[in-house]
Amino acid sequence: MAGLVTLCLLTALTLVLGYANKARCTGPEFNEWGRSEPAYQERAYGDVCYSDIQNLWIGRDIDRHTFPYVHGGIEPDGSLYGGVVEYPVLSGLVIWLGALFVDTDAGFLAASALLMAPFGLAVAWWLGRLSGWRALLWALSPPLVLYAFHNWDLPVVACSVAAVFVMRCWTTASLRRRAMLASLLLGLGFAFKIYPGIFVLPLALHVLTSGSKRYDVKGALQVVGVAVATVVVANLPFALAGYRGWLASFQFQSDREVDLSTNSVWYWGLRSLDDGEGFQSAMGVVSPLAVLVSFAVACALGWRRYRRTGDYPWIQVSAAMLCGFLLLHKVHSPQYTLWLLPFFVLVSVRWEWIAAYLVADAAMGISIFRWLYLNMTGESSGIHDGFTAQALMIGVWGRAALLVGLFFAFLAARSAGDATRDEREVRAA
Question: Secretion signal: which residues (predicted)?
Fold first, then answer.
């Protein structure tokens, strides 16, 4: 218990540092819309304290305290109006709550941090219970400082970790009951930021293959059904109250172009081929198809491991699927590292993989904003003009190469809980 309390205290300290890092961009003055002055954008990029939370205070009717989705929609040019935000409904509620009693972007950042910090602490507690001292990778990680309050990601990370916690620690319940509760949590995660929904498939395969004599088809279908029902229940009130506004958030992401704001390998690798509508239409097909292929490969390799060991490694397969998504999706925002970070705790991959990824991520996460600042101010920003562009390319392509390696490393590794139990048994012997 003392260790878990210490872990949470360390996480709280890291979250405070994360908030302080972003709060450097706020104030000291504010204009009539509550936007920080002077020179907000230049400071955000140049001082590397940018956050989507502060930035989106203006432009989504958040500053007007408009209830999300119900009264809005999307314009032909892709701009959102009437309280619509480009995130699923539960994230929209968190955003609305964070803005409810404030009138500046600084207040919005502070209120949003207060709302989300408990989720970060809960993740620390659950990871500590699941993996012991490895949870320090969460509590003291640079990504938690860089991205904890960059966007609204801590609640969705909590959903995915809570699902693993239920499966591993609710020992008094049957596998089906644990899996259905975990599936409910993954469905809630989908209603925050989509990605936990992909973990339902390996969880269902885990239940399918866990019968003593035959495949548990009914249990697997129940897992999928609970996730689908959870997503429907979370979304249905918004769809009924304002279908056009609810649909607009999904349409925005579907229509989003591959450009600098997406920061994916598709942009950095193929931007010279961008001829306009044809390129963007192709990316709208190629990217999701590549993601689905990576999912199929991960599940198939997990099945091969099941045939060899008798246990379907759903946590490892989930981690590999996330690697495929991060690498091949047309959007790869900096804060997505928070999605991957718990899997470094939950799966016993080699420390070299983790260290290399954190270095590459820091190189990208810092240099991208410095590079944007150089472009904004008209300074030289080419690959031969200084270390900023070089560090950005190291980060982008180093991270991409590591995601490929981690895809297979996760599938070959044990879960951290299994490794810890093995170590205890060796010491006891």
Answer: 1-22
